[in-house]
Design goal:
Layout (H helix, E strand, L loop, with lengths): L1 H31 L2 H6 L10 E3 L6 E3 L7 E7 L4 H17 L3 E8 L3 H10 L6 E4 L3 H6 L7 E5 L5 E6 L4 H13 L1
Parallel strand pairs: 3-4, 4-5
Antiparallel strand pairs: 1-2, 3-6, 6-7
Length: 181
């Protein structure tokens, strides 16, 4: 009986070690191929296309439908403190650049109702979409570390990447640079 129990414990420990190894391998592999990682290596990667359900509107939004415009993509969540601070800045920039720059908020890992309440609380009116499982965020280089902001040029290439809370001056500078390109 003791021997059988010991064999079972060793097998369980081996399985846990194998799963941990697979998790580490997956994280390392994904970090090598994300938009943020490519940008940080000095490249200007194509923004990964997505088609997500709108949070504040009907239907869905496909990023590639905005090709030809400068696009600001902001990944946020209701539980993120810096996201709460920067939300009014994005709304203000949206109002200032309306018609010249497209803004897309990506609410990640939230419930729909929480996201809608956040948009109402902070007066956000530009298009926002839902990434409930964080799959799109993951392709851009994050797991739960947000906010992240990407400014995409007219050709669909990322021109600026801001990790963490976007200060008004950084956002303004990134948008002007993208418009001038």
């Amino acid at each position: 009986m003791f021997r059988l129990k010991l064999v079972g414990q060793v097998a369980a420990l081996g399985l846990v070690a194998l799963l941990l190894g697979l998790l580490i391998w997956k994280v390392v592999q994904n970090d090598r191929s994300s938009v943020a990682q490519d940008f940080n290596r000095g490249k200007h990667p194509l923004a990964v296309d997505f088609d997500l359900k709108r949070l504040n509107g009907d239907g869905s939004l496909r990023l590639s439908s905005l090709r030809g415009k400068v696009v600001v993509i902001n990944f946020w969540a209701t539980w993120c403190q810096p996201c709460k601070k920067e939300a009014p800045r994005f709304q203000s920039a949206f109002e200032r650049y309306r018609g010249r720059v497209a803004f897309v908020g990506v609410d990640t890992t939230d419930f729909t109702g929480d996201g809608r309440a956040f948009l109402a609380r902070y007066g956000v009116s530009y298009p926002n979409v839902r990434d409930p499982a964080g799959r799109v965020l993951h392709k851009y280089g994050g797991s739960s570390d947000i906010p992240r902001t990407f400014v995409v040029g007219r050709t669909g290439r990322v021109q600026t990447y801001i990790f963490g809370e976007a200060r008004a001056s950084d956002l303004e500078s990134a948008i002007r640079e993208a418009l001038a390109a």
